[in-house]
Amino acid sequence: MDAIEERKVYRLVLTGGPCGGKTTGQSRLCTFFENLGWKVFRVPETATILLSGGIKFADLVAEEVYKFQENLLRTMIQIENTYFELGRTSNKNCLIICDRGFMDASAYISKEKWDRMMRSNNWNPVELRDNRYNQIIHMVSAANGAEQFYATEEHSCRSEGVTLARELDYKAASAWIGHPYFDVIDNSTDFENKVNRMIECVCQKLGIDIGDRLSITSRKVKFLVSGPMPPDTSFPAFQDFEVVHHYLQCAGPRVQARLRKRGQNGRWSYIHTIRRPQQHGQSIEVRTQLSHRDYLNMLTQQDDAHFTIYKKRRCFLVNNQYFQMDIYKDPSHPRCKGLILLETYTSLTGDKLKAILPKFLNIVKEVTGQPDYSMFNLSLREDWNNTKKFCYSLHGKNTCCHRTVDSTNTNTTSTTTPTIATATATTDTGVDKADEDIGATTE
User: Fold this and answer.
1) So what's the pLDDT on residue 20?
2) CA distances from 123 to 46, 103, 115 (A)
3) Alpha-carbon distance 166 to 20, whole Å?
């Protein structure tokens, strides 16, 4: 019974623009996880199934397009549910790879018609985007950054030119903005490393130690942002969410557990996260999706040593890069006043990293791994100078210990407030990489 309870069923959407490597990536991902002893199901792309029957968008009138998309989604849900049910009854860990997912259809229909479709079918976008799938990976089209490799000859359903392919790539990525675990795999490396980065990204989210089998270069980085916030019109397409974090009581000082509630318009998803140290200096996060009832039950374990953290989270794409920006809200500790933090996942450094950052934001500095900006430390009720709970890292010599203060310095304001607190805004970025500071992770 214990072995069955520990089994994982991981629902992954692999999406992307034309000629992005989705088909090859799916095959490689399947082989990789089968070699780990997992059962892998591959859910076929519903649109390809239907279009292979002779349907051509160019021949459809507006209302026919609407009904086609509506029936496509109904069919997709039923096909996916078949595989999801098989995954739940499997006696092995199970990876279910969906060739595109529910939200991809929104890239091919106007917002007004999409909203009408959601209402008429009583479909909840938060449930069908955030809760239905564990992770979304977007493989960027070769038409965007690797044009010399873009081709249509070997794909019977592909006829897009480079310009149209770029537009479709952006629409496909934008459709998933807001999913809590959305990763964009660009063309900054050769194709072999692009596929490896995709596989490594899935392994990271699952907490699987892959050692040196893949080249691991990407990491999550975090930046302090100063206000005032620019107007909404300065941003590209974005999704805003309300996010609430509760830290839970833990058995040991080197383990952290927290609950996250994230939602829009009164619709919520719930995640339980446990972070603990592992061997080889790595720490792994294990995330479990919860029902509302389970969430309420686990709230009884809340750790009174921590404030509840309230944020507004804005998700958007810039320069083919996916960003999350957390704006801390009251009620919270005064050290969080005006705090805005920006995060992204990238292998770039130095000037190349700076070049991809949003130009419309006033970015003060990079604060990746700095414990003063960890959500765990920011939520502590006690003064940092008078607590043994301040956490520097989950590994190394300084794990969770009393904050060190220079006795020769009489100015101790930095022990209760982030060192950049004079800025009117900052963001706590999630760090999934094992070699980052524990508190640098966000949900």
Assistant:
1) 85
2) 18, 12, 10
3) 11
DSSP notation for 209-271: --TTSS----EEEEEEEESSPPPGGGS-SEEEEEEEEEEB--SSTT-EEEEEEEEETTEEEEE
The residues, any chain, with a CB within 8 Å of residue 285's CB and separated by 6 or more, are 207, 273, 274, 275, 432, 441
Give the model's pLDDT for residue 70: 95
* Spans of the chain, pLDDT less than 50: 1-4, 153-158, 212, 215, 279-282, 394-443
DSSP for residue 17: S
DSSP secondary structure of 81-96: HHHHHHHHH-SS-EEE
Residue 42 sits at the vertex; the CA angle it makes with 37 and 46, to the nearest 5 degrees, is 170
What is the 3-state composition of the chain as percent helix, strand, coil, each rounded to the nearest 5?
Answer: 35, 25, 40
Which two three-digit tokens encode residue 397? 């010599």
Is the C-alpha dihedral spanning 372, 331, 343, 209 positive or negative? positive
Interatomic CA distance for residues 57 and 72, integer angstroms: 13
How far apart (Å, rounded) are the C-alpha atoms in residues 429 and 341?
A: 6
134, 269 Cβ separation under 8 angstroms: no
Taking the CA atoms of 247, 250, 255 and 261 in sequence, report the sign of the dihedral they define.
negative
Would the pTM count as exceeding 0.85?
A: no
Full DSSP string of 289-333: EE-HHHHHHHGGGB-TTBPPEEEEEEEEEETTEEEEEEEEESSS-
Cα(173)–Cα(107) distance, integer angstroms: 9
- What whole-number distance in Å separates Cα of residue 199 and Cα of residue 182? 14
User: Cβ distance 303 to 314 under 8 Å?
Assistant: no
